[in-house]
Fold this sequence. Notes:
The complex is a heterodimer. By secondary structure, chain A is mainly α.
Amino acid sequence: MMLPALAVLAAISILPFLYIIWMSLNDVTLLGGSGLSSRWVGLGNWAGMFTDPNVWAGWVRMVIYFVATVGLQVILGVAIALLVHEVVWGKNLALSLILIPMFIAPVIVGLLGRFLINPTYGLYSWILEETGIFTGNILGEDVPAFVAVVLMDVWEWTPLITLITLAGLVSVQQQVLEAAKVDGAGYWRRLWHIVLPSISGIVLVALLVRSMDALRYFDIVWQVTGGGPANATKIIPMGLYEVAFRFLQLGYAATIGLVMLAISILIANLFTRMLKQRGLAG
Amino acid sequence: MAEGNGRRSPGGPKTPNRLTRRNFLKAAGTGLAGASLLGIAGCGGGAGTSGASAGDGMWKQFSGMTLAFISENTAPTSAIAANLQPFKDLTGIDVSISQLELTAVQQKVALDFGSRTGQYPIVYADPYNIMVPLRDGLVDLSKFMNDDSLPSVPKGQDDFISTHLDAAGRFEDKLLALPFDCPTLIWCYRKDLFEKYHDRMRKDLGFDPTPSTSVTWEQYYQIAKWFNENADEVPYGTGHQAKQFTSLTDDFANVLWAYGGDFFENGDKVGRLGATDPGPSTLDAPEAIEAATFYKKLVDIAHPGSTSWDWNDLGEAFGAEQVAMAPEWHEFAGAWWVPGGLIGKVGFSLLPTGPARSANHYGGTGIGVNKYASQDEQKAAWLFVVWATSPETQLMGLKSSDGGGTPTRKSVYALQEVKKNMTPPTSIPNALTSSVSLEAWEPQNIGLRPKTPTWNQCDAIIYTELSKMLAGGKSPEEAMRSAKRGVDETTKGGERAV
């Protein structure tokens, strides 16, 4: 009875996974053009990766990127959801407008961002320069370029957190809030002691979804900076793409990919455990 | 072209001179069918032709077939894509063209060769990103040249500009592609501003600033600085394609060669014919460090956008009157020649001279035939390669209103029609750079990147180190030493360069 399902699972998931493990133990390359060539190197790719300063630097940037994007998205997403939740008139219109960014393909977000901060004709560049806030070239300097790609990701995915949080806010028990209000609890007190604890579970789910996405963030950076300047925005998925499809070193790329997979699983487990502690996961 | 020079379509000039089949025949000066015409041209062409007597049958033998051509999204390919009917009439073959960004082309070709499916019989074989790294997947074209059942190269191989044929076509002892396009970095400048300020600049700077090889790179810097401080029409004197990308290596290479440096010890040979083992890198040589020091000084006073610009951004900025001059791919000339643009205001020259020479980076590409396609598809693909690189089709590209580029054939530049349009007023804006380009392609002026299988990786190491020098505070000496170390490890098979 289970056999067909297992066969499909093996074909689309288990066999490719085993193949990638095999690739990580071989020097697999497309260089030369005479087909896929491979040579057994054992743990050579793994040893190379763990001693590669570029990989470590890529992971450090990835962590900073991860914390900055996911952190900002959660803070802003929850804040916007709380505001929208309070809106009485035009709530649907406000929500529709807020959700627009997440329906745009990331690569288009990257293109839009590039246009807006282009030093020649970019609207944001012009505003920043005219107001004296920033007069340099945003994408030509390391820290501003990093901040720019972080903000583009935040702009696109904050609405997802907002949407999920709004769903959670609907489930907050109104009687409890009313009772607290009657007892003299102010807005901030009710928020801290009633609303936030009530929605923490669903916010965790939102965090889990965004964390998995953030780890394979690629399109916007590729489109906007290509990893530069001075490698400032070269997070690990950029390096993986370059090794696999530009340098055609598929064995080494498989090694990096497997580490990314392991870290994704680790983070997912962490969130699942937190959800379990709140009795929200089985 | 490529990332490797990979420039994107700069958008072409609008001319009414679309080449019809009738024009095609007229241009050849004969009433014979196009097929036999090309064959006869081949017979008279000298070296490299098979000498086969061409006939309609020779061109029609694969009639009804459909071929896929994968190419970078370049202006010359756009011109071909917009005018495939003459090829269809000549051969009965349909060609479907996929135009993608260069890295995507490289990726698809690598996977096609890796799986040996032969999905794309005709391949845009960028020498640095595709032809050399994936060389075993391309057919040595001498196979078709020696086949009497196939048409030969019209006017022979000698009609190709010799540096193009070597750089874009050959790797070591094989001919893997025929030159198709030929973008080259030359000095593009605002002629109107140079004329307006000529006397003032001459007085202030103490030398004649008119762009030519008499101007040195150091003087180029002084001119740029003068524009920064004195001209109102443009905010900055110079602009560069110094984004952390292959454009940065391309732009820097002009200065590197001009200062007497090179990427590898035997740079001329590795650039022109290529080498599987290019030998040790010379990026830490005093000339290379001096070049890097100057390049940093130059970019420091350039338009601040330079460190995030590739060739397209730079082309747009020049067109938007943001800079007075820039080293830019010559194919952008047509894109600036548009109503409301810079018609008649742009001049072209060879790049400035350094202590060693004036070096003008060539970024041309050839088209080749996929070894994993069926035998018939390979032969049909050869027909396309011969047609697309023929003088007639190259002339069509030059005159195209759908992009187009400059020809890779000497005979086209000798045509009166082309000669008279090389200077304004012109009905063929693509031809405006021709006299400068022809000079730039002379062996003593051309700059050729290394053709070696791991160049993609070496390139990434070099532009990353250069970007660290420009935007990350690394000293030129440190950057060049790190680049040399990384390149040497890569060519020995060690460096991963994530």
